[in-house]
Amino acid sequence: MGRKILVIDDDPMACQAIAELLKKEGYQTVASFNFEDALQKALQILPDLVMIDAVMPEISGFDACRKIKETFHPHPPRVVMMTAKLNAFDPVLAREMGADDFVVKTGDMVFVIQAAQKILSKGSPS
Which structural domains are found in the chain, ordered by start? Predict the structure, then answer.
């Protein structure tokens, strides 16, 4: 089986769509619609990559990224932040919180798939 990816998005349809597309690319995927559930799943599956929506109701994707990096220190998974709302996204803050990359979610999600492939092709995080 492929590398493990945890997808976190408060929009269940988007979350499932992303997880299914990544699964078709050969990755093992787990979907979560809220951060507390996602954190528990992350502790169980130890993902290679976490893809987090930047705008969520209970916790921002930026804070979720920081918490994941802290929880798994010194060997955190890579994190890609996703957004459909460019005006709500701050790439500088994303990097400060530990994001390895960020991507815009489009209707066909091609950029999301490419971001996952690019990050995972880099090998282990430093």
Answer: 4-120 (3.40.50.2300)
- Which residues are bridge partners to 50 per DSSP? 6, 79
Predicted structure pTM score: 0.93
Q: Closest by alpha carbon to 61, among 37, 36, 82?
A: 82
Strand partners of residue 29:
5
What confidence tens digit (pLDDT) does each residue in 61-78 have?
999 999 999 999 999 999
| Average pLDDT over all residues of the chain | 92
**Per the structure block, which two tokens stand in for 98?**
């530990």
Distance CA 102, CA 115 (A): 8
